[in-house]
Every structure is written in structure tokens, then in C-alpha cells.
Amino acid sequence: MEILRQRLLDSTTKQSDLIEIFAAIDRDCSGRITYEEFHAAMKLLKLDFNNDDEIKQLFRRFDTTNNGQIDLAEFLQQIKPPMNERRHRAALHVFNSMDINKDGKLTIEDIKLKYAAQLKAVKNRSSQNIDYTLKKFLNKFDTRGQEDGIVDQDEFLGFCVMLSATIKEDIYFEHALRTLFDFRF
């Protein structure tokens, strides 16, 4: 895995190039990499695999949802470099500020309490419509294939790591978090 990660990172000039690499491997443009597409890409990269079983094992490490395909989030999760300590702290601050009841999970109720003033301004929406919209919002953070409307700390940090991979400077990463979540550090 480390050899593949290093080869791909060395071939990029910016982290967002990883998305273009994903698109190149995804030959049928389905938004998911099949085993066949992955296998072909590994052969083209001429990594020293002893046999096809090693490629299959690597594919399984990428396919964290075990659905036989690798989506962009899974790909980036395995390839991207980890967040540095400053970014990790900033992401945790944002998560903790939204986790109103401090149970380690973001729920519709947490979001309603955190953003009550903004939600109050939406006068012509029913409570049911707001709940539906907030659940869809929370499901965007889902990294395990379970759209349950609940975001735990790992899922939120997974989102932040993907965001981090596309932003070069720490200060811009923090700015993106502040803008996205209306948070003051």
C-alpha cells in the first residue's frame, strides 16, 4: 500500500490531482472503481506484485464498504496523507462545537440546536421538511455505506481528511471549516 501511495503522491503536483487519478482508473465513469479497472491500473503502474492475489488483497483494503467497488471516498481515504495535528485539532473543535449533547455523535437534534437562529429564519419550511434536509446533510458525511443520519467523530474526521487532501495550507483549511460550519476558532 505504501509503495502505491507514494507513487501516486509523487506524481501529483497538488492533492486535488488524486481525484483526477481516480477518474482515470474509473474507465467506465461510473464513479466507482471495479476490481477489473483496479487490476488494470496496478498492471500499468508496474508495481512489483508477485501475483494477482496480492492485487486482490490490495483492492480489498481500498474497498472498506465490502461492496466490490471503490468509490472516491474510499480511494482518497487510503491514498491521501493524514491530516497534521493543527488540522486535526481544528476539525475536532468543529465537531465538538456541533455535538451539543456531547455524546460523540452529530444528530439532527444537535444541528437544530447549534444552528437554531439560522433555521428560525427559514419560515416557510415545515419541521418535517427541515428534518429531512438535515438528515440528507448528515448523510453526506457517511463513510461506511450506512445513511443513518448520525455522524460519529470518525466519519466527520474522514470528511475533514478528504477536504484536507485538497487544501495545501493549514490556514486555508481552517478557513474552509469556518466557512462551511460557521465556526469561530
Automatic annotation (TrEMBL):
Pfam families: EF-hand_5, EF-hand_7
Domain EF-hand: 13-48, 50-85
GO MF terms held by the record: calcium ion binding
Keyword match Calcium: yes
Keywords attached to this entry: Calcium, Metal-binding, Repeat
SMART domains xrefs: EFh
InterPro entries for this protein: Ca-bind, EF-hand-dom_pair, EF_Hand_1_Ca_BS, EF_hand_dom
Protein name as catalogued: EF-hand domain-containing protein
Source organism of the structure: Adineta ricciae (Rotifer)
